[in-house]
Amino acid sequence: MCVNTIPNAVDGRGAGGGVRTSRYSDGARWERYVTLLFSPEHYQQAAEAYLRGIERRVAAGQEPVVGSVASMFISRWDTAVAERVEPGLQDRLGIAVAGKIYRRYRELLASPRWQRLAAAGARPQRLLWASTAAPDTINTMPEKTLLAFADHGQVSSMLPADGGDTQDVLTEFTRAGIDLDELGATLQQEGEQSFNDSWDSLLHRISDHTRRLAGKR
After folding, report:
1. Are strands 67-72 and 30-37 parallel, antiparallel or unpaired?
2. Domain containing 10: what range?
3. Which residue of 25, 61, 97, 183 is most buried, as measured by CB atoms within 10 A?
């Protein structure tokens, strides 16, 4: 399997300057992983790019089966506003954003545009998020969390396809002085910088280790 990770790849360019996509190949087909998505707008733009790509493949008579996930960051929303809102609004923004994203995701899957592609054999671009479960999405969580849930966790409710009271909650944050568009852009920029710092750190460690090994010869 080969992996190619590039910033501002064609499939995710519209989702913002910090978006990253990875291409994975098993020799038979390509898979695309889109990350550094925070807001509903980021998701919408990434999904639109994916749809356009599949439509071009269908029009060209190519295989439409291209697996893809859109990786959303949820918890950082709550961390970012923890000291800026009243206690009654704390730990509510991330789920509200997730609800709005999920609504757009379900609307896309129900759209005639997607149904035509699905009939041609295309697979949906799946939402991926951490510890935020919803039907027809991918959920990642640490093993410790998974084991704790298996031991005593309970599912109290499912995220509704229409997002539930998502918009009402988001309106509360806007009234509290939170610029959601600006915050989403900031979170993406900070996420990109964090990714870059981690990558640079890895390269430096590899370089240092290589020099030490060369010195022992």
Report:
1. parallel
2. 2-215
3. 97
